[in-house]
Every structure is written in C-alpha cells, then in structure tokens.
Write a structure and sequence with these properties.
Elements (H helix, E strand, L loop, with lengths): L1 H7 L8 H11 L5 E4 L5 E5 L8 E6 L4 E7 L5 E6 L11 E4 L4 E6 L8 H4 L9 E3 L5 H5 L7 E4 L4 E3 L3 E4 L2 H16 L6 E6 L9 H8 L3 E9 L20 E3 L9 H13 L5 E3 L7 H6 L7 E8 L7 E4 H21 L2
Parallel strand pairs: 3-12, 3-13, 13-16, 14-15
Antiparallel strand pairs: 1-2, 2-12, 4-5, 4-9, 6-7, 6-9, 7-8, 10-11, 11-17, 14-16
C-alpha cells in the first residue's frame, strides 16, 4: 500500500532522500518527466507540451523528527527537535537513529527516582536522551554521528472502521494523493507535482520549485490538525476526522484565492464530494510561500484531518483521503471545462 510505504519511510527535514526515491519509483512511466532541483525538491510534470493553465499540486516530503546533538560518555545521545514537536509526548518512544537506522528509545529519569515536583510537570527536553543500548561513547560513535537524524519507528496499520494510524501523515498523505492523481488522471493542461523539502523548518522548499515552474495556480495538499477530541470545545475544532477533506479559507500564511475557493466548492457539490472548511487560521503551509513567488500565484490548501499530528503516531480516516483525491480531480475536470 502506497500510504504504508510513504509513511514508514524516514524523511526528517533535510534528509528526504528515502521518500524521494519511493515517489520516483511510483511515478516513473506515468509522467512526461521528473527531476530534482538544487534544494532537493522532486518535480514531475504531466502534459508538459499542452496549452492551458499550468497547475501545481504540491505536498512536502519531510516530517518532524530529532537531530543528535551530543554523544555522552555513557553512550546516551542528546538531541534537538527538528520541526514542531510537543515535548510531552517524547519519553519512552521508539526510534530509528541515523543512516544505519539504529534502534533506540527516548529515556528519562525513572519515575520512582523523581522528586514530587518533578512528577507534577512534563519532563523538559534537556533531561531526555536517546538510549541505543551501548556501554559507552566509544561504542556509540561506531554506530551514530553527531548531526544525524532520528525518526519515530511507528508502523502503518488499519484501525476500526476505515481508519489508519501511522507517522508522518503530515504530509505523506499529500504526497500519496498527488502520486495517485497523476497516475490515474489525464489532463488537458500541464499539471506539475511538486514534492517539496524542508517545510517543517520554515517552508523552505516549495517556493523554489514554483519560481522555476511559474504556475498559473497552485493547490497545496496537506495533513492538518483535527481537534475533535476530549477537552476541546466543538466551536474550537479546526477540522473533524471523517467529515471529508478540509478547504482552507485562510491561515497565517495565505488567504485562498476566491476563484479557486469558488471552483472547489462548486466541484465538490456537483460531484457530491463530502468536504469541510478548516475552521482555524493558525499555522502556515507551503501555499503561503508559493503565493508570493514573482508577481504572485493564486493558491489554496486542501487538508486531510489528522488527530495527534506532529507526534509519533497520528490517526486519519481513509474515506477523507479518498475524498481529498476526488475533490482535486473534480476541480481539475471543471477547470478543463470552464478555464480559470
């Protein structure tokens, strides 16, 4: 299963190579050409020589993770977070460390050794470490180098009534959707798939690709937070799992271009595709950076609601994923009929 391959691959920001190779393998033979730019973005195009608007479908390959910052004399590894991770969820989580994918686990002082006040608050990052099961620094240095990256070792699996759990749904779900759309659909105009790098550390990759392509419009496909969990009032929900893909009206980086917004709503209603609006405006995506390229590019975001995002394991609804693909395909069909 494509989602399983993509989500289980290691691709912490700046080290997206494994994800990139999977995508190349999947799209080879289905697109006119693909290439990797100097940033590391993978760009594919289908219908390159056709007339009509140049459309970008974008998603980012990278995921949040950890970077090894120091090897202690004991062989324990100190680390920094790469991207936004809630430190409260880290302790006791299993990892794969470095290029050799050395198994490890995040450790901390045992609870029965903690003072009362320590047990009443989250363990700070500076007191956590990665244990790879070695006796000293010399042995650890044979396996891991400072500066290497560590990724959560979560496996993808189905849950309950058409749900799935796994890591890196932000944004391997977007990558998977673009791959399947480009494999399954034919377009009357050029469609570019942009699989971007380093989104989680400052939206760094996609704008470079858009600068080279100069598209007429862009759609970012993302995984986004779903707040439909205990402790959150319903009026504060960002999105709800199981209610379809979420269309962004605005976030901290972009206000959706009105013609694209109207087109997406019209396509969803015409083809009876279940959808929702993303109801909060915090956070930004690559769409914001793409929209600022050169003279400006009309852009929007379609998101897949995911519970527990930016953690070692998230949860999604596979019907929402199918709806994301269907909504993009329907919009492109209507774009072919009516233009932009």
């Amino acid at each position: 299963m494509l989602l399983k391959r993509l989500t289980e691959a290691a691709g912490v920001s700046s080290n997206e190579d494994e994800v990139r190779e999977i995508i190349k393998d999947e799209i080879d033979g289905y697109v006119d050409e693909y290439w990797t730019d100097m940033m590391g973005n993978l760009i594919a195009v289908k219908g390159k020589e056709k007339a009509g608007p140049r459309v970008v479908l974008a998603a980012h390959m990278d995921e949040v993770g950890l970077m090894i910052s120091k090897i202690e004399d004991s062989g324990l590894l100190k680390f920094k977070t790469v991207g936004g991770i809630d430190e409260r969820v880290l302790v006791s989580k299993p990892l794969l460390v470095g290029r050799k994918k050395i198994p490890g686990v995040i450790g901390a002082k045992a609870i029965h050794l903690q003072e009362k006040e320590e047990r009443e608050k989250p363990i700070p990052l500076k007191e956590l470490y990665i244990d790879i099961g070695v006796k000293d620094k010399k042995e650890a240095e044979k396996l891991v180098e400072v500066g290497e990256l560590a990724v959560f070792s979560t496996r993808f699996s189905r849950l309950g009534s058409n749900y799935a759990k796994g890591k890196a749904f932000d944004d391997r779900v977007g990558c998977a959707a673009i791959i399947e759309i480009m494999k399954e659909e034919e377009f009357a105009f050029p469609v570019y798939g942009v699989f971007a790098v380093q989104e989680e550390v400052g939206l760094r990759g996609a704008a470079r690709a858009a600068y080279a392509i100069e598209p007429d419009l862009a759609i970012e496909l993302e995984g986004t937070s779903a707040s439909d969990v205990p402790g959150t009032e319903e009026h504060g929900y960002s999105t709800t799992v199981g209610e379809g893909p979420a269309i962004t009206l605005m976030d901290s980086s972009v206000i959706t271009h009105k013609k694209i917004l109207q087109g997406l709503i019209k396509a969803a209603e015409k083809y009876k595709i279940k959808y929702q609006f993303r109801r909060t405006n915090f956070g930004g995506t690559d769409a914001g950076m793409i929209s600022l390229v050169k003279e400006g590019i009309p852009a929007t975001v379609i998101s897949l609601p995911c519970r527990y995002i930016h953690s070692p394991v998230s949860l999604m609804n596979l019907n929402d994923f199918a709806g994301m693909k269907a909504l993009v395909s329907a919009y492109l069909k209507e774009l072919e009929r009516e233009g932009f």
